[in-house]
TrEMBL record:
GO terms for molecular function: glycosyltransferase activity. Pfam families: O-FucT (PF10250). It comes from the Eukaryota. CDD domains: O-FucT_like. This is O-fucosyltransferase family protein. It comes from Gossypium barbadense (Sea Island cotton). Belongs to the glycosyltransferase GT106 family. One of its GO terms (biological process) is fucose metabolic process. InterPro entries: AtOFT1-like, GDP-Fuc_O-FucTrfase. The keyword tRNA processing does not apply. The lineage of its organism: Eukaryota, Viridiplantae, Streptophyta, Embryophyta, Tracheophyta. The keyword Transferase applies. Keywords: Carbohydrate metabolism, Fucose metabolism, Glycosyltransferase, Transferase.
Length: 342
């Protein structure tokens, strides 16, 4: 409506918002391909660089409302008002207020998903993810060659793996318990034992599987996450896999981007339905399945299945999970839900 370019955002490199000295911003184009984004999102959203501005200091401050009382209708009306009058004399409009322009609950899932299709990691980060995935599959092939799956004549070219966004870190356990109390929902927190049991009960998983555990190592207060898994499930985290050196070279943000890619590419993904990180991975995997012509993975076996370990499903395994693309807002993605389409 405004026919304006969105100035390229910067991203925080740190996990800890209180550690001011670590909050060095990372430019969007250090994580995602800038030109590729504009090409893929052509006629939907366009990014611009601050360096392209003629005057970086003179801007129009547009005050925003805050909180959930700021409705879709009020957003739309302010947009209409902002498309005319003195605002046109300014090259830059700055949205000022507690919450970003168009409070994200207002976005339909399909529109949000369209933006995600335009996000392509820069080569440097994608190559780091390639190294991790290759290492997982290489170990998987060796493992399969020692089992009946690796009998002579069978194909070892593709070694499937399970990726688990295993949220058992200190910060998550504090957050999820408070969230359970506020929302009066018991299916948010999951112990290590509960996760291991439910993953082991996934129907059709097979007798041997490589399991990659995506955890925030700096916040992990449990050195036993590799112990106690069902026989046939072989768990790996960064150190055991021998890729911790790849991650340590980068800030927390880039480490998360690598883990996101590793989880997204997994043959089976298992996460927590109240985690935004898990929800975004499932959104991307759902888009992939839909492009194959499948609109629901519930009750059928499809490629790239996803599960939520915090919700019990078939045979006391994790619940099947597919993003509901018809949702009119992002509540289920942004805040989590135990109603996950299946």
């Amino acid at each position: 409506m405004l026919n304006r370019t969105l100035l390229m955002p910067s991203l925080s490199a740190s996990l800890f918002y209180k550690e001011i000295d670590l909050l060095h911003p990372i430019s969007f184009d250090q994580v995602f391909q800038y030109e590729r984004f504009n090409s893929l999102c052509n006629r939907f959203v366009r990014l611009g660089r601050y360096s392209d501005l003629g005057n970086q200091t003179r801007k129009y401050d547009l005050r925003k409302g805050s909180g959930r009382k700021w409705t879709v209708e009020r957003d739309l009306e302010q947009l209409k008002q902002s498309s005319r009058g003195p605002i046109n004399k300014y090259q830059v409009i700055s949205m000022a207020g507690k919450n970003p322009f168009l409070w994200h609950d207002h976005w339909p899932v399909k529109d949000y998903a369209r933006v995600f299709e335009c996000l392509v990691l820069v080569d440097e980060i994608a190559k780091e993810a390639d190294k991790v995935v290759s290492k997982i599959r290489r170990i998987g092939r060796k493992l399969r060659s020692k089992t009946n799956f690796g009998a002579e004549g069978s194909s070892l070219s593709h070694a499937p793996y399970v990726a688990i966004h295993m949220r058992v870190e200190i910060d998550w356990m504090i957050h999820c318990k408070k969230l359970e109390q506020r929302s009066r929902i018991s299916q948010i927190c999951s112990s290590k034992q509960e996760i291991m049991e439910r993953v082991g009960n996934i129907v059709g998983l097979g007798s041997t599987a490589i399991v990659y555990l995506a955890v925030a190592d700096s916040l992990l207060n449990d050195s036993s996450i590799l112990d106690g898994w069902k026989r046939g499930l072989v768990p790996f985290e960064k150190k055991k896999l021998g890729v911790d050196g790849i991650y340590k070279k980068h800030s927390y943000l880039i480490q998360s981007a690598i883990d996101y890619e590793v989880c997204s590419r997994a043959d089976i993904f298992v996460g927590n339905s109240f985690s935004t990180f898990s929800s975004l991975i499932v959104l991307e995997r759902t888009q992939r399945v839909i492009r194959m012509g499948i609109t629901s993975s519930c009750g059928i076996d499809v490629r790239w299945p996803s599960y939520a370990y915090n919700i019990p499903g078939e045979s006391n395994g994790p619940q099947k999970w597919m993003t509901n693309m018809s949702n009119s807002n992002l509540k289920a993605i942004s805040y989590g839900s135990n109603a996950i389409s299946c």
